[in-house]
Amino acid sequence: MSYSPTENAILICSDVDGGSYELYIVPKDNLGRGDGVLDAKRGLGGSAIFVARNRFAVLDKSNNQVLVKNLKNEIVKKSALPLATDAIFYAATGNLLCRSEDRVVIFDLQQRLVLGDLQTPSVKYVVWSNDLDTVALLSKHAIVIASKNLCTCTLHETIRVKSGAWDVSGNIIHCLDRDGKNRAIAIAPTDLIAYLQQKGFPEVALHFVKDEKTRFNLALESGNIQVAVASAKRLMRKTTGIGWA
Hints:
single chain; alpha+beta; Methylamine Dehydrogenase, Chain H; 4-stranded antiparallel beta sheet; 18 strands; elongated
């Protein structure tokens, strides 16, 4: 499912029989009322996602291209894709993340340029951080964490990866258990740091740490001297009240 909040428009996709989509536009005066049946605009395509406020892209696998459409379901643009693509995902306004069996690319629809390219296990889910600076690419047994330009690190898991979400505000995860019930689980953010260290990625853990002593140690471990020096200065200022030039 893909959603355009400014237009109250929803795309619902299915992989059945080669792929199709339905586009619903919810009138703002009907929000929360739940009455009436909405008319849907329909079409064929392997994937369909919003790429702008009032534009969405549909994957045409047979011609390896995307069709950009307006909310009337009319084609306004066609773009050939830079690799044999079997699925497309959102990658910020005007951009697509295109997936093949063992590779993903970030593709700028307007300029028709590849902004990032990455070899990766077959990706099932794509989860962007709120600021769209970081993305998690989830495969069956791997988590690939990358920047918006697809600079990356990979974490391999023995358990099957089913979904993921970025921690924005702290120590609570909301999820569905196997019985379909909502659960709120408290976690310790330090567990994430220890996990990343254990997997050999102190440079990634550094992005999630605010404690200066921990940042200093992680910076040394990852060879980031600039961050280590900055943390050392703040630690000295905090403990002695004396600045360090």
